[in-house]
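hiii so my PI (J.) wants the whole complex modelled not just the main chain, which honestly fair. so below is everything: two entries, each one labled with what it is. i double checked the lines twice but i was tired so who knows lol
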Amino acid sequence: MTFLLTEDQEMLRETAMAFARDELPVTHLRQLRDSGANGKDPATRQKLAELGFFGVIVPEEPGGEHFGLVGLGQILEAQGRTLAATPLLQTALIGASTIQLGGSPAQQAEWLPKIAGGEVTFALALDESAHFNPLNVATEAERNGQGYTLNGEKRYVPDGHHADMLIVVARTFGEPGDRHGLSLFLVPANAKGVSIQELKTVDSHGAANITFTDVMVGADALIGAADEGADILEPVLDRAAIGQAAEMLGSSQAAFDMTLEYLNSRKQFGQLIGSFQSLQHRAAKMFTEIEMTRSCIAAALDAVDSGRNDVAELASLSKARASELVHLVSNECVQMHGGIGMTDVADPGLYMKRARVQEAMYGSASWHRDRYAKLNGY
Amino acid sequence: MADTIVDELETFRAETRSWLEENCPPSMRTPMKDDEIVWGGKRGTFKNPESKLWLDRMGEKGWTAPQWPKKYGGGGLSRAEDRVLQEELRRIKARPALFSFGLWMFGPALLEFGNEEQKLRFLPDIVKGKTRWCQGYSEPGAGSDLADLQTRCEDKGDHYLINGQKVWTSYADKADWIFCLVRTDTSVKHEGISFILFDMESPGVEARPILLISGESPFCETFFTDVKVPKDQLVGEVNGGWQIAKRLLQFERSSISAGGFGGTGGSGILGPDEYAKIHIGTDSDGKLLDGDLRGRITDHKMYAKAFNLTVARQTEQAKAGQAVSHTASILKYGAAKMNQDRHELLIEALGSEGLGWEGEGFDKGAKKVTRQWLRSKGNSIEGGTSEINLNVISKRVLGLKDHQ
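here's the output for the full assembly
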């Protein structure tokens, strides 16, 4: 296991941090919100493609050099710092991982170069209720002569309101709750029978509820084996949780830095408020939590790249701890800013709004604690 | 160039491996037993004769203090060689040959602040485990505010005269010598403190063990009445002791947090999840029946995992030469919380089985847990309270200011 970045990964991190700071500051999210873009940002997508960020986990040739999930984690952490709405988690991480882990040679040859070039974006259509519960899928995919017919409803699909392609988790066998019987399908967002309801969300990133009514896809839309989709989905969701946690680490660190700056500049009773011990100790505890969570995420990213067998445990550890961290830091950020923290013009509220979305995605802290306990045999 | 270094290291590894094969006695390759820990010293005893053999051999090589210079009895190894040595020791699961405040705390400070004569005089006997040291820091009126210490040290021309009292002096009743903070100037606070060494057999020194809420303890109250100390036993400048004291506290906090207060439990003790399975039970899926306790155990286990990963990350960064600043305070704070949470959960999972004190009718391991639970309450007090650690983090790491 290593916690250190290679020279190349270090350079990638610096590039990503500079890009987020200069091109995607929090004011950029504000502009998108105020103009009603709801997270849709074609100009940024173009810039990310030019930087090569979509292909970070995709080797240029099979087995070739790449930055790995450790590299992508640095980019996600950078975009978390400024709350940037980008298609990277859905496309560069989830889309690429799904095709890499489950795609046929033909699917890999078709989609991986397009992902790497930023020519296509993906969204994972999974949840059907208000809570993450990946086996609780009722959406049906029924075999027809040439392929499958999909019927069902998906809720709160991140990027579902602007992605080109949907990865749909559907049931080809069994009942909601069964692990066996899930299958993954690639469905163009503009396919006949796909109805997309755009959602205005609290974090201004947007999302979509998506209804599938007699949507016909060919047999070649199936990723991996029919009924065995969970074998692909579970490792993909572990990576998604780790990537989301990396983004949350960035948001937590930025909210904390902002808070610290305020503590060191705001005066009351003739004193800097950061000189009051009750605030100092809370700041010191937050710092300790950030450093400990940073270690978990670095270990989890590295575990994926080096093919270790404890990825699931580290994914749950990272997502649970990052969720608790961003919850704590975003709340304290508002509280320690006092009245100004309650105003729309200040940034703390934006961090808190985004935090709650991040916490819910790919399993809440309690979902991952429960899984961590199961993995540890109690 | 780099290849030569690698070759040399591999030669060193081969030599080390064969030396250890020949010299590490068989029982020293088994897990440490609590009553076989070797603290050395003039009055030191060896329950297992092989642990004396092991200490003598390691001490002779200087490998109890691998990186200290050879002229002071150390191993004279480079950092890379020391790493190889530690890897080889771990490979054969060798026990530490010596537990010693001299090795962990006083020695590193003397190397940095002592004069040549003092280093030659004191360090070799630390390496060989011949002299056991104790630390005279806290006083009844100077705990967290250590610099308020009042033990007087007067210059009497050809010697110093010491009067006062120390408390929480670990193993003062067993130690041969003490490194001690004393007041040489009463008109100023931090700038009136000196760092002095003396023999615990000097006339006027008395150590009395302290009984804790958990029972017997290594701690003592230590009294000094007109203790005469030769002048060449003061380290550094007169009134310059606070710098040494602070540096030494860093060594202390690192050694406490690196051990995590023995947070893995020790022999004969199970984890909270395992005790809960036994005493509370599980459902047909193997889940603990008490869902609330299950969640809190998981919180703790995740904290412990994150803590251990953080120790590993900082160790790797330090080896790579990346600056790791003030991590000792973070780890000390985290280690105390982790160990206390763990023991509260152990007691809760054990139920009435965890409420025994002594005698028959209780499981031996459970009684040990009960004592350790009480002892763990000191983790957030000793070696700098958690509140002091949070002060250090907020001021030195985060740069928050003092009241003006």
